[in-house]
Design a protein that fits this description.
435 residues, alpha+beta, 8-stranded mixed sheet, 14 helices, 14% strand, elongated
Amino acid sequence: MVSFASRKARQHAVVSEDFERELTREVLRTELVRVRALITTGCVIVVFLTAIYLVDSSVVQRVWRGTEGLAEVYGLLTGFILFEVWVHSQIRRNLKLDRDLPVFRRHIGALIETSLPTVILILQIRSMGASQALGFVVPLIYFIFVILSTLRLDFWLSTFTGFVAAGELLTVALIFDPASGSGEPQIYFHAVRSTIILICGVLAGAVGAQLRRQFAASIAAATARDRVTNLFGQHVSPQVVERLMAAGTSAAGDLRRVAVMFVDFRGFTAGAQSRTPQEVVDRLDGAFAVLVDILDREGGIVNKFLGDGFLALFGAPLETSDAAHRAVAAGREMLTAMERINAQTSWPLKIGIGIHFGEVVAGNIGSPRRKEYTVIGDTVNFASRLEALNKEFGSQLLISAAVREALGKDCDDAVSLGEVEVRGYEQKVAVFQLG
């Protein structure tokens, strides 16, 4: 029997897949930072050794017993830098392919990198002697790899790095610097130092894991923001997005009392015929930018753009007790803004606005693959018809009796146009003009 995942499960799987992909990309980016830091460190050490040789060559004689030992260190560092350059190229390649690095390759890379100080330490023991080399600077280099392992954002990889560093240092110390006398003081000395390195690896892993959790939380928040933005359009104000993310949105339709506003540019098609497509787009975008900014300030959202107009909502998706007041305030401000814009352009535009207030069903409508938040109901249809009446009356802002009643004394300047026939409605309805 074939079983099918629920729609919610499939949507969750898609979101999880996108989340994991973005998290992987973020981890790879931090890996690139780590590798660049190692390459830089290797180059700095090469420059530092060269400077010492040029300034005081006697140091080379005391530490490496001649240039032959120094040349071996140069060779190791050069090979290490080339290896890291190759690792860097592989990470960039996987980043472009949206593909993670295999776990075993990460561990092999950590083993190779962390073994560099061990090989250099053995070379110095051969030239300086065990006691002097183990007490010199090379054992401290292990901490560079342990600290940078934090950028792997993987607890076990950082712990593995600390384990390799501690184990190799202890092994080299016990082989080349055997304890004298009873043997206990030297063993304890090397064991304690290696234990400290191992603890540092564990701590680096814990820090890396915490950073990974923070990255995951940031990506999850960005994913949620993208879902809200895609659902409600690019012109939803940041404040509305924040409130939607905090309150959540219902996938099922619910009944709301909202103010529906339709806005349309009058004579736009005729004016566009004598202008280039780019001029048309620029003029429309400029006007939309001003009008949408007004909507944002009044708490409205653009539900959808309709060519040279748009449908705006007040009271959905976020409920408000003064939706009609906000819609009318936005309509008045739009008329004022258009007068100001028209005084500064050779292509003046007039807008027609229709506002109605009533109940709608608000929710996510569409197919399982593509949904859109919208409102459905007679309130929407009547607001559209109301806006179209501006052509008949030569007006710019018309409101319904429901809006007039909701505003009360705040709408004393409304002029009644009487009972008007509206296309699609059998009975005449009361219409009022503002502005």
